[in-house]
Amino acid sequence: MKPPLLLVGHGTHDETGAAEFGRLVHRLRCRLDGVVADVTGGFVAGARPALSDSVASLVARGHHHVIALPLSLTGDRHALGDIPGTLALEQERHPTLSYELGKALGPDPRILGLLAERLEDAQAEIPRMTFASAAEDEAEHIALGDTAVVLVGHGSADPAVNAEVHRVSRLFWERHASDYLTVETAYVSRTRPGVPGGLERCRRLGARRVIVLPYLLFAGAVLERVLAQAMAYGANHECIDIRCAEVVGDCEGLADVVVDRYEQAVSTEVMEVPGLLEVLASA
Questions:
Q1: What is the rounded radius of gyration, in angstroms, for the C-alpha atoms of the chain?
Q2: Count of CB atoms situated within 10 Å of the CB of 222
Q3: Are residues 118 and 98 in the same domain?
C-alpha cells in the first residue's frame, strides 16, 4: 500500500471553496481506494478542516509518513508560502511524522486543457454580462478574431508569482487560443492590471467580445470578486459583450493531475533512498 496523500489548501473563508475542496478529496479517496493507504486534506488557515486536524487524524490511524501535495495552480516555489513551515510545525507536534512535499499543480498542459474547455463553454453558452436586447443578442455573431480573453490570477506581492500567471497566459494563447484576438493577463488584487484594466486593454485592441477566464481552482469569494469587477466595467461599456467562464473546479481532469503529482513524489522518494538503485540493479 502506498503512503497516504495529504492535500494542502492555503485556506479560504468561503464555504463554497471549502466544499469544492472537500469534493475533490472525496473523489480522490474513492479513486485511490485500495491503492493509497489514506486520502485526506486540510487548510493551512482560514477554513475547516484545519491541516493540523487532518495530520493528527492520520497519525492517530497509524500513518507516520505522508505525501503532502499543495493544491496550487502557481508552480513557482514562492506559491508554497507557509506550507513548508506549517508542515515543520506538525513534525514538532508529532515527532514520528515524516513527509514528502510534492509539486504544485500548475502550469500543467492538462490544466491548460481544462481552461480551454471552460473557455469554449463560455463562448457557447454563458450569457453576456453587458446589457443587450434579446434581438440584438441573437442577431449578433462575433468571430473569434474579434474576441479577446482575459486570464485572471489571484495576484501577489511577489513579482515571481505574477510572472508565472503571465507565462500561463502566453502558453494558453499559443496552445489553445491562437485564433482569438489576444489573451491578456489580469489579477484580482495586490498588483496591476486588475480585471477592469485587462478588459480596457482588450477594448482598445478592438475586441467586440471579451471572455474573462479565471485561473482559479474553485469557486467562492475570489471568483465573486472577479465577477463583480467585470460587471462593474461592463456597466459602463455596453458596446462590448463581456462573459465570464467557470473555474477549473472539482473534476476528473483535475484529479488526474493530482494523482500524477502524487506518483511523482512517491517516485522521487524511491530514487532518493541510499543504495536502492544498486539493489534493484543487482536483483
A1: 21
A2: 22
A3: no
For residue 71, the SS3 value is coil
Rounded to the nearest angstrom, the gap between the alpha carbon of residue 142 and the centroid of all alpha carbons in its chain is: 29
Which residue type sits at 223?
Answer: L
- On whether both 139 and 226 belong to a single domain, the answer is yes
Domain with residue 87: its CATH number is 3.40.50.1400
Spatial distance between the Cα atoms of 184 and 231, rounded to a whole number of angstroms? 18
Asked whether the beta carbons of 120 and 149 are under 8 A apart, the reply is no
Report residue 25 as a C-alpha cell. Answer: 478529496
User: For residue range 112-142, what is the model confidence (pLDDT) as tens digits?
Assistant: 999 999 999 999 876 666 655 444 554 468 9
Q: Which of 264, 268, 265, 261 is nearest to 71 (CA)?
A: 261
Question: pTM of the predicted model, to two decimals?
Answer: 0.88
Q: Which residues pair with 70 in a beta bridge?
A: 8
Question: Which amino acid makes up residue 59?
Answer: V
